[in-house]
Amino acid sequence: MPDHSRADRLEAFRQEVRSFLREVVPPDIRAASRAHCLVTREQAVRWQRILHARGWAAPGWPREYGGPGWSLVEQAIFREELAASDAPRYDNLGIDTIGPTLIRYGTPEQCRRFLPGMLSFDDFWAQGYSEPDAGSDLASLRTVARRDGDEWVVNGSKIWQTLGQWANWALVLVRTDPSARRKQEGISVLLMDLRTPGVTVRPIRFINGAHFHVQMFFDDVRVPAANLVGVEHAGWSIAKGLLVIERLFVARVGDCKAELASVAKLAGKWRPGPGAQIDDALLARRHAELDIRMRALEAAWWPAVRFAEQGGSPELEASLLKLDGNLLLQDLHTFKLDALGARTLPFDPRAIDGEPSPEPLSPGHAENFPLHYWRYRGITLAGGSSEIQRQIVAKAVFGGLTEIDRPRQDQMDEQQAIMDGTLRRWLDKHYGFERRRETVAARDGFDPAAWAALAELGLTGLLIPECDGGLGGTLSDLMPLLEALGEALVVEPMLWSAVLGTQVLLGAENAEGREPLLAALASGQARCALAYREGQSRRDVHHPETVARWDGAHWRLHGVNRLVMGAAQAQHLFVTACLPEGGLALFDVPSQAAGVGLRAYQLHDGRSAADIRFDNVELPASALLCGADHATALLDDALELATLALCAESIGAMRRSLALTVEYMRMRKQFGRTLSEQQVLQHRVADHYRGWHAARQLVREAVAGWSLVPPAERSRRVSAAKYMVGHASRVLALDALQLHGAIGMQDETPISHYSKRLMANDALLGNASAHLGRFVDADHRSQA
Ligand SMILES: Cc1cc2nc3c(=O)[nH]c(=O)nc-3n(C[C@H](O)[C@H](O)[C@H](O)COP(=O)(O)OP(=O)(O)OC[C@H]3O[C@@H](n4cnc5c(N)ncnc54)[C@H](O)[C@@H]3O)c2cc1C
Fold it and tell me: Which of 6, 168, 418, 707 has a Cα at 20 to 30 A from 378?
């Protein structure tokens, strides 16, 4: 049950933050933000003090340390609103990482002494981790600290400290035991006053011309022993403690959202101006892709935040989010660059010092765009580069620590988990690879015994109400089962009969008297298929090649409906036909009726379909399921539901495809080591996992919102999911073959069948490209 009171409270909180931010940003700072200037230290101090006065200076800190004591979800909302406002945007590592480190590992005295200054900006802190010769391999750091009485004596250098030129304090990682066996041992954390003799700070001019970073040199710098954080020589665990929670926020979801909104404002301006490089239609599609990636990011983000809030440690999710969020933010900027072309080039250096240009440098130019474009290129390096995040993901995938190896049932209720478990056990035992191959080869893709068993397990009646002999289940009940069917590459037409066909019958206007049919469908004794015009666009779907005419006593059908999935096994065909006066109607046609000619064939992945010819098929008035008023809407609804169901099936097939690929790579040796030990291959698999994860989150989101969101948004969510699933599954399908080498190309190897199924699923019910187009159209309609 959704907790409405909590949702209301969070919404009220969001509004409170929003109106506060709207009111308190000083006009000069607002103007500078709107002109995309960088933030000056003076502006940052003023802003921090405004937040401090409100008690909001450190969103992640508990109350007893001067923070607001917000939950993680509240922190996420605050950051999102901050990014969307005209407040200054800069990285305050004291507040975001060093303060929380002190709260967790520091002494009460250190907290008392240092935290208030961070809150008020009397002190600004730098994070001294990287060194000229220790970047990604941070543990190889060489800055040393030798104990001398009550002091540490520090020598060495740190580099790339963000906003180090503003800082008067730094948290510094130093080697305190050079004789330690492992490089991760013998490291300690010190708090260093940068005004101490022996400290030299040299600003580094960044690629965008600004001074964002510094290099620090330490020459016999004396640090009081009391400034050691945690245990001597055991600082590595603290160093790694950009804690999971902080890493979640480094994904910059709020910044991505704000940037997407800013990019969306350009949408109306996509008339190619001087210097614009590409045309409107292409821009609209690229924008839609970014929008869908944003949806996927959010769909993964909130569950991870909630999981962390409940005490979980979403480490893998944090890496996935950082990868996806940072790449998305960069791609949003690149998109802007492409959309605005040469108008992005003019640059007023005064923006570095927080000063908006008094008048535009060049009319219509994208103000100070290069400052931010170059700035955000660094985010895929900072805080653990994208390559390092891929390494973390790959380690989890190849180490058997992801859902690739163990399906997680935590999204299911008890009843769903029981059904899922029972189905999976049955599939493992009775639907092995060889058995399936036999079905495909000898029985044209249909095994009556398998169908009966699946019906026995409740699948055929899942969506049918209990009063009609079904289980009265929901879309959420159905999805895990379809994932399991996809994992086993089940060829029997469960989706086409028990989901698509049944859904049409359930929604039909004139369904009275069809209780016996529903009961027969629920029990698995009968099967149905929707005979519509399969095509990439809804235009095709709404204009079948079959026409229906009323001759005064009967309906008469003429024409052909092609590529009807499940038709070869169906006793009832629900046929879409055009009416002479315009519009669409749906008919219930027995597959054995006179004049119905069915030509069945197999698809390249082993499933069966048929073209159905209707040659003056005579039907009684009662055969009309739905007339022109409702047929189109009914058809669209049923197709949308089936599209999500197909996505779930692909998600299952993708999961197994990944599992098979990982298993093969763990075993196959070349050049004296397994493929799974080759980093270039590991990273590809990490990206496939990322694609699978993002696609699955979008499918889950569409399912969760199915009956809650307005129809237009529902359609958008379905198209976003089908696009993402199609895109990710095609990339995986083809690369899984490549990663298997030649053995993947043979029919005997299971992976070849997964690849064919995934490619075929993309082509059905509108492929990725068609759904991207639908997403764009839906957007344009909503803006019109
Ligand atoms: C915007 C920005 C802000 C920063 N802020 C701070 C800060 O406040 N404090 C601080 O201490 N440091 C900071 N850094 C430094 C940052 O932590 C390092 O840039 C980062 O750790 C990478 O190290 P490196 O630059 O030396 O690159 P290298 O480690 O030399 O890596 C070069 C390239 O090789 C890749 N690579 C390295 N090792 C591997 C591997 N094993 N497998 C695959 N690929 C690999 C990297 O991903 C990168 O693409 C910041 C950097 C940037 C860009």
Answer: 168
Burial of 759 (0-12, 13-18, 19+ CB in 10 A): middle
165 lines ligand 1 (CB under 6 A): no
Mutate to test the pocket of ligand 1, among 89, 381, 391 (most ligand atoms within 8 A of CB): 381
185 is catalytic: no
Model confidence pLDDT, tens digit, residues 523-556: 999 999 999 987 767 777 888 999 999 999 999 9
What are 485-510's pLDDT values in tens digits?
A: 999 999 999 999 999 999 999 999 88
Instruction: Confirm or reject: Cβ of 378 under 6 Å from ligand 1.
Output: yes
Residue 718's SS3 state is helix
- The CA angle 329-387-398, to the nearest 5 degrees, is 120
β-pairing, 199-205 vs 211-224, is antiparallel
Using DSSP, state whether 670 is helix, strand or coil. Answer: strand
Enter the tokens of residue 101.
């480190």
pLDDT of residue 411: 80
Q: What is the mean pLDDT of residues 729-750?
A: 97
- For the chain, what is the mean pLDDT? 93
Q: Are the C-beta atoms of residues 249 and 77 closer than 8 Å to each other?
A: no
Using an 8 Å Cβ cutoff, are 431 and 450 in contact? yes
Alpha helix segments (H runs only) across 59-155: 72-84, 93, 99-105, 108-120
CB proximity list for 515: less than 8 A, separation 6 or greater: 468
Identify which of 582, 571, 557, 562 has the alpha carbon closest to the alpha carbon of residue 521.
571
Q: pLDDT tens for residues 318-346?
A: 999 999 999 999 999 999 888 888 888 88
Q: What is the dihedral of CA 639, 644, 650, 656, to 10 degrees?
A: -150
- Residue in 385, 677, 682 to alter for ligand 1 test, most ligand atoms within 8 A of Cβ: 385
Taking the C-alpha atoms of residue 727 and residue 166, their distance in angstroms, rounded to an integer, is 45
385 CB under 6 A from ligand 1? yes
Q: How many CA atoms lie within 13 A of 659 on its CB side?
A: 18
End-to-end CA distance of the chain: 36
Write down all domains in the chain, each with its CATH number in brackets. 4-90 (1.10.540.10), 124-237 (2.40.110.10), 245-381 (1.20.140), 446-452+467-477+489-632 (2.40.110.10)
